[in-house]
Amino acid sequence: MNLGNLLSRLLKEGKIKSQVADNNYLDNLLAAAKRNFEAAALLRDKVDEAAFKLVYDGLLQIGRVIVLSLRLRENYWAMNMVT
């Protein structure tokens, strides 16, 4: 399955929705991800679990930027629905 087909299917299922994001919002998400990575680097040798959480959160923020850059957003209710 290619990306176009996957996105079409997720839109049809209601798991993602169309949305236009403001560039300032995207920049702020990237800046927050960068801060998480910088903080994780400081904690890496001291508190591994906290460093991991910061990196994980930074990656989630970058994922949001990617999805929003495609003019989409996740539908939290549909994504967490038990079927």
**What is the molecular shape?**
elongated
**Number of structural domains:** 1
Which range best describes the helical content: under 10%, 10-25%, 25-40%, 40-55%, 55-70% or over 70%? 55-70%
Strand order of the largest sheet: 1-2
Explain the layout of strands and helices.
Blueprint lengths: L2 H11 L2 E3 L4 H21 L4 H22 L2 E3 L1 H4 L4
Antiparallel strand pairs: 1-2
Features of this protein?
mainly alpha; 4 helices; 2 strands; elongated; HEPN domain-containing protein
Provide an overview of this structure.
- This is HEPN domain-containing protein.
- It comes from Candidatus Saganbacteria bacterium.
- This protein is mainly α and 83 residues long.
- It has one domain.
- It contains 4 helices and 2 strands, in the order H-E-H-H-E-H.
- Strands 1-2 form a two-stranded antiparallel ribbon.
- It is elongated and about 45 Å long.
- The model has no long low-confidence stretch (mean pLDDT 86).
Summarize the structure.
The protein contains four helices and two strands; from the N terminus they run αβααβα.
